[in-house]
Amino acid sequence: MRPNRVALAVAMAYPFVISAQSTDSAPSKEAGVVTIVSKQPTSLPTQIPATMEGITAAQIAQNINASDSEDALKYFPSLLVRKRYNGDYNHAILSSRASGTGNSTRSAVYADGILLSNYLGNGVSGLSFPPRWGMVTPEEIERVDVMYGPFSAAYPGNSVGAVVEYTTRMPDKLEGSVKLGYAHQPFDLYNTHATYGGWQSSASLGSRSGDWSWLLHLNHNDSQGQPLTFATRTVSTGTVGTAGTAVTGAVPGLSSANVPWLIVGTGTQYHTVQDQVKAKVAYDFSPSVRATYTLGVWQNTSEGRPQSYLSNASGQTVTSGVINIGGRSYAALTGGDLPLTNEKLSHTLHGLSVKSRTQGTFDWEVAASLYDYGSDTKRQNAASNTLPNAAAGGAGTLADGSGTGWNNLALRGTWRPQGPKGLHVVDFGAQQDNYKLRYLTSNIAGNWTTDAAGSVASAVGGRTRLQSLYAQDSWRFAPDWRAVLGLRSEHWSATQGLTRFSASSNLAFADRSEHHLSPKAALSKQIADDAFVKYAVGRAVRMPTVNELYGATSTTNSQYINDPNLRPEKSWTQELSYEKNLDKSQWRLTAFAEDTQDGIYSQSVIDPAAGNKTISRVQNVDRIRTRGLEGAFTVQGLGLTGLDVTGSMTYADSTIVANQGFVAVAGDTIGKQQPNIPKWRATLLAAYRWNAAWTSTAAVRYSGQQFRTLNNSDVNGYAYMGVSPFTTVDVRARWQITSRLSAAFGIDNLNNDKYWNFHPYPQRSYTAELKANF
Predict the structure, then answer these.
(1) Does 388 sit behind a cis peptide bond, omega within 30 degrees of 0 on the bond before it?
(2) pLDDT tens digits, residue range 117-142?
(3) Which residues form the TonB-dependent receptor-like beta-barrel domain (predicted)?
(4) Same domain for 175 and 277?
(5) Do both 324 and 289 map to the same domain?
(6) What does each C-alpha distance from 14 to 223, 472, 475, 712 come to in angstroms?
(7) Total domains present in the chain
(8) How many CB atoms lie within 10 A of CB 412?
(9) What would the 3-class secondary structure string for 188-218 be?
(10) Cβ–Cβ < 8 Å for 449, 393
């Protein structure tokens, strides 16, 4: 999996230098500083005092069934992306060692230095805030690098979990490609027995002429996902008697809390059609100074459709009214149980950077980016507007986030007082990040599918700004030693906070501002020609997002309760690594620890008294303590020429040790496991080159038991809203038909594990692709 593995292996124990060289060049090292070779330079700072892993485009093509850019992270140690189907645009959250799949703000995702992480909010409570994965497709990627932990002063506190950097290609000559992919998923759960999948196509064209280079990339994805939510009735809420329509088709089971319930239908099954256009233009002012402009346009049209499992005595589907199951009557089915949604999104990304790459005494960069929700609407039927009439129109809501977005500006420099082989390498810079959230939900009395917005149902808005200065010195004070010291200063402010639930109920919040310092330090030692030891420690301050502060919303089937007085989340993270690099194998062992004060969490519960509405409340958790051990290895030619094996295993004990808040009763979260952090997780990937034309890969991913709730009451992971352990086996075979034409076939979840993370993950899925280069 790991590119230039010798270089990356050393990098886990030492800082390293990134330079723009051919990927065929061999990595070099001196006093623990490693030159990572890549056609395009990443935006990561030149000296990185942290564990790092990476993967190249060639390895993605050979080893991974990748339909979305986040698939490149499948087999990285300790990482998981909560991707539920191809093109998952609103729930694909990245988790890491001590950060769960509900905490998207505890990681940072970039593409060519442009921020893709969405820090307008956290996770998927209320609104959805995953990284904007759709702005990058697998065919664009040259390489992906992941830095673990908040050990670089160049990044904000959101780097506490991991920093992911996608580096995309720029051509050296006229080139192009066309790719066609297909996915097929038979799905069998409760009373759903259907097949889902879709088609994906992409094309690219680029060239270089003199000092100019350009690349145009197009991508189209038409995807059907499996049902994700389910309408339920708790057995104990039924009233014995004959009231209501007698129905059959309900599926009995146990909830995530092991409470008997009935599954009466599906709530959301997405059909999403996405188009992406990406244009990059670069101009070389000199051999060492390049300007690059990036334009990305992403459009998405999706429909969420429900299905009732219930039938009356005549065999007709029942979608509304009081229902009677087995002699018990239950609350009426509403539009909240069986919601219909239509979404239309059109987002635009701009990025501009000018940077020098001399690797001499001084290098610099000026970078700016803008992400704009040009159009962002979601239409949904009202709770009172039930099927089948709701399919044709009737009352509903229109949520409009148009105008929301963020912009970033960074000035960076690298100073090498004695040149590239000097004792010191100093990184420094200034950054400003602005975020604006504006979301208006309006009632529609006539036709929810077409009518204009009516009266205000809810509105949220606000801005945050983070202004930062940082400096970091990597000091080679002895031939085998290197120390890294850094400091980040951050000034954060939140302004224009507004929440309202009608035209006359405006609630404005007072402006806030805070200042924080985050020191970083690392010490590395080369203890032998092939062995390294490194210790790193860093503080990270994760500031509250606009949505967490002001984003109270109430819709047909969900409610989000904000907190304008949230405290920032403050973490101290440490890691101690030992790295061994042999002739054909490398391995790393890392002990890590994290102590987080005032962790920010949004906890979701289902309220039967509110028509099974999902209620989410954001809160601070006083203290969370994590202790863990991570191992990673790679072996080339393991007993057989052409066979490469990589793997990892992570143990994490992440516990809530102090918390004044609670879920049900005081103290019920103390000593409980941090949500969405399994104690054990592992990966194993074996890639075999049969000959010059054929390669095949088999991979295993494992994740142990975990919980979604702060008090760990969701003891049954194999149910809707539960989080289950899983073991999945993925396989892939690739045929290089000619020098320009290739084909691949793969199966994800070959063993058909039926596992959950609130929603059901995909079951056994088949993929096929055909690609032509010219």
Answers:
(1) yes
(2) 999 999 887 688 999 999 999 999 99
(3) 337-750
(4) yes
(5) no
(6) 43, 15, 12, 38
(7) 2
(8) 22
(9) EECCEEEEEEEEEEEEEEEEEECCEEEEEEE
(10) yes
